[in-house]
């Protein structure tokens, strides 16, 4: 997304990817992503989300296949839950369009969800489903159309930034440039040890389920969403586009991973049985005989906010990292902010909550660091 925005602004830019563009091994793997405007992570994200939505629609128009399905997003839970409070705060501060649904209204419109007493639904009509791998391909394609060069299957081995510029050693030779932007996901720890922002690499596990009546789980009937219903009942849900499977992410299993290169996303049958029991208690109409699972990684900071900015002492080396399980939806506006930062050393949207040197509470419980 940064490459797209830089190239669009006429910057001579080279993108370097260690695998193929649109691969499944990074933070964007796993076939689908949620877009929400009414944001449980805090109202400070709403300007980034509003701008991202415009850019998602622009990218959609450039893509041969739809990458943003504007089906709306649901948040389900007790109104007093802190995440729902933040959703309401976002709605109030920015006057966002929304609908609060009582338990009986929810049962009528979304009978797929087995609700608990006291729960409400908040429908965010600007939400939707993103198709990440194709979205990345579309953004890289747009960047190339604006003149960017893209090197695939090329690993960056080392970046040497000094007052005369940056030397980027890769498996295909050295690139010399005025500056570098490092958006290397969980690999940024390895690439820039001690200089990539303070985050942990954690595994999230995605499960896909067959359904008994696929029509009930298409985006118009079963929008994307997040549910906060108790310790083993917090999860996110994603509709099916082709009638085959829905996806759920139970927000409990965040195992720390030391080396992303040695990571194997295989999930044990025992764990999948546990997830199946939890999810079938919360969603009805699933075909529990058809299930598959895979683990994916992202970098999580202690306060769940990403890092955006120059490595201290190097104003020609910008790092974007620690997107804490919720970075995909804001990626286009982050990319635009990178282009502004690189050209003018400022951003239109306030990014201070992502500052490198902010204070963080390192003792925060890992399990509180939910993704989607
Ligand atoms: C299971 C799961 C579910 C999620 N769900 C959502 C959701 O619903 N909505 C949402 O908004 N967010 C979601 N997220 C978060 C979001 O997908 C991530 O925060 C985001 O994709 C991270 O982007 P990134 O650019 O930092 O990393 P990545 O997407 O991993 O990109 C980094 C890229 O850099 C490349 N690279 C790394 N090192 C090198 C090197 N040395 N040389 C060359 N190339 C290199 C990698 O191969 C990779 O392609 C989820 C994350 C996970 C794991």
Automatic annotation (TrEMBL):
Its EC number is 1.5.3.2. Residues 2-340 form the FAD dependent oxidoreductase domain. Pfam families: DAO. One of its GO terms (molecular function) is N-methyl-L-amino-acid oxidase activity. Keywords: FAD, Flavoprotein, Oxidoreductase. Its cofactor is FAD. InterPro entries: FAD-dep_OxRdtase (IPR006076), FAD/NAD-bd_sf (IPR036188), MTOX (IPR045170). It comes from the Bacteria. It is an enzyme of class 1 (oxidoreductase). The keyword Heme does not apply. The keyword Oxidoreductase applies. PANTHER family: FAD DEPENDENT OXIDOREDUCTASE DOMAIN-CONTAINING PROTEIN, PEROXISOMAL SARCOSINE OXIDASE. This is N-methyl-L-tryptophan oxidase. It comes from Pseudarthrobacter humi.
């Amino acid at each position: 997304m940064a490459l797209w925005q830089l190239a669009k602004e006429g910057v001579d830019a080279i993108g370097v990817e260690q695998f193929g563009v649109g691969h499944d091994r990074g933070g964007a793997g796993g076939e689908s992503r949620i877009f929400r405007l009414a944001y449980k992570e805090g109202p400070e994200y709403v300007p980034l989300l509003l701008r991202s939505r415009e850019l998602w629609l622009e990218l959609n128009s450039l893509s041969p296949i739809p990458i943003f399905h504007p089906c709306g997003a649901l948040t389900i839970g007790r109104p007093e839950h802190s995440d729902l409070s933040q959703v309401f705060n976002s709605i109030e501060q920015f006057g966002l369009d929304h609908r609060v649904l009582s338990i009986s209204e929810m049962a009528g419109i979304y009978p797929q969800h087995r609700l608990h007493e006291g729960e409400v639904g908040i429908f965010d009509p600007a939400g939707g489903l993103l198709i990440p791998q194709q979205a990345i391909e579309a953004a890289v394609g747009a960047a190339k159309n604006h003149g960017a060069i893209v090197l695939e299957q090329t690993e960056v081995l080392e970046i040497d930034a000094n007052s005369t510029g940056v030397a980027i050693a890769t498996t295909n030779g050295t690139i010399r440039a005025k500056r570098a932007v490092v958006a290397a996901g969980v690999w940024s720890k390895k690439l820039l040890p001690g200089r990539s922002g303070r985050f942990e690499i954690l595994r999230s596990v995605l499960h896909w389920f067959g359904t008994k009546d696929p029509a009930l789980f298409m985006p118009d009937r079963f929008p994307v969403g997040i549910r906060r219903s108790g310790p083993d009942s917090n999860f996110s849900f994603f509709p099916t586009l082709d009638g085959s499977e829905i996806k759920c992410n139970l927000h409990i299993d965040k195992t720390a991973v030391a080396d992303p290169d040695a990571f194997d996303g295989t999930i044990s049958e025992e764990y999948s049985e546990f997830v199946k029991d939890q999810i079938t208690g919360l969603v009805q109409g699933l075909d529990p005989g058809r299930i598959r699972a895979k683990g994916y990684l992202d970098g999580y900071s202690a306060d769940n906010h990403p890092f955006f900015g120059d490595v201290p002492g190097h104003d020609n080396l910008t790092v974007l990292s620690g997107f804490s399980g919720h970075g995909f939806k804001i990626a286009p506006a982050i990319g635009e902010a990178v282009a502004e930062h690189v050209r003018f050393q400022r951003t239109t949207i306030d990014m201070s909550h992502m500052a490198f040197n902010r204070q963080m509470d390192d003792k925060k419980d890992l399990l509180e660091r939910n993704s989607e």
